[in-house]
Amino acid sequence: MKKPEFKILSIDGGGIRGIIPALIVSEIEKRLNKPACKIFDLMAGTSTGGIIACGLVIPDPNDDVEPKYSAKQLAELYQKEGKRIFEGGSSKFFSMLSALVDCTYAHKGIEEVLAEYFGDAELKDALKNIVITSYDIELRKPMYFKSRLAKDKDLADEENFKMTQVARATSAAPTYFEPTRILSPKQMAYSLVDGGVFANNPSVLAYAEAKELYKIRTGRAINDLPKPEEGIPYFMLSLGTGRTFNPYKYEDAKGWGAPKWIRPMIDILMQGVSETVDYQMRYLLPDDPDGTPRYRRINPLIPADLSEMDNADADNIKGLMQKAQEAIEDNTEELDRICELLS
């Protein structure tokens, strides 16, 4: 088995369901006995996946070469702070009703949690390369937070932001939280919402950034990078937040207007985009000719009653943790092989 030269972790969006990928990364950290920032060369995340990716690369204030948080501690963040993040919500009926006229949740809770956990850490401080997604609703274009650019002295005034700003921007899910407005050090204003509106699964974006980073590392031009038949230098682990088979019946949906389509459309877009990107990645990173994996995705099936992105009740969190453990057990041999590649 040929070891990859460049290792990539990609984590989907999915709100409170971020517990699932956080616990899978925790299992990898446990098996390899080292933190994710010393396992992967690049981490990409959208929404809750962006929060996790940021958390994994923030340096410890007492030891700036070690991460402040393990993946297990980030999973515990959801357990401890989930209620505060989704502060001010009500029953599902009233949440749907309020979404017609206002955001379901106040932004105060999530901003307080991010400030407490991420402090004054900046994108340029990242212990390993990250790329985090968001979308600017005024400029009408995607926004990519890249630590590679934030560390560039010539670009820092435009590209460096506090991790709290990055995490808040990537998780500003429409109808759940209001957009956030942030300023670059150069005082350029951005009006941002959740990156899940266009890239809930950021794997293709991670692949593009990995090619750029690999080019910089090796000094090779993009067109001169190894071809698949020559052996692919990358390995990517893509983690979902759980997929669900929650059908919307034709007889019901054919009579829906805009209000009833709001939340189903978000669900359909998120899962549809994630599965489309998975399909693309299987072609972009096929196994090496010798059978060595170059792309693997773990995204367990979860029941509909665990699919809500904002359900921070203790029973729901317990259920998500159980599904994460089942995913680890069901994929234990695959994880062994993945860890062998990552070691």
* Low-confidence segments: 90-102
Helix content bin: 40-55%
The count of DSSP E runs of length 2 or more, i.e. the number of strands, is 10
> What is the ordering of alpha helices and beta strands?
EHEHEEHHHEEHHHEEHHEHHEHH
Cα distance, first to last residue? 12 Å
* Overall morphology: globular
Q: Which radius of gyration do the C-alpha atoms yield? A: 19 Å
Helices and strands: which structural class? Answer: alpha/beta
- Count, helices: 14
Report the portion of residues in β strands. 5-15%
How confident overall, as mean pLDDT?
91
Main sheet summary: 8 strands, mixed
Give the arrangement of secondary structure elements.
Elements: E1 6-11, H1 19-32, E2 42-45, H2 48-57, E3 59-60, E4 63-67, H3 71-85, H4 92-99, H5 107-118, E5 129-136, E6 141-146, H6 147-150, H7 156-159, H8 163-170, E7 180-183, E8 189-194, H9 196-199, H10 203-218, E9 234-239, H11 250-253, H12 258-284, E10 295-298, H13 314-330, H14 332-342
Parallel strand pairs: 1-2, 1-9, 2-5, 9-10
Antiparallel strand pairs: 3-4, 5-6, 5-8, 7-8
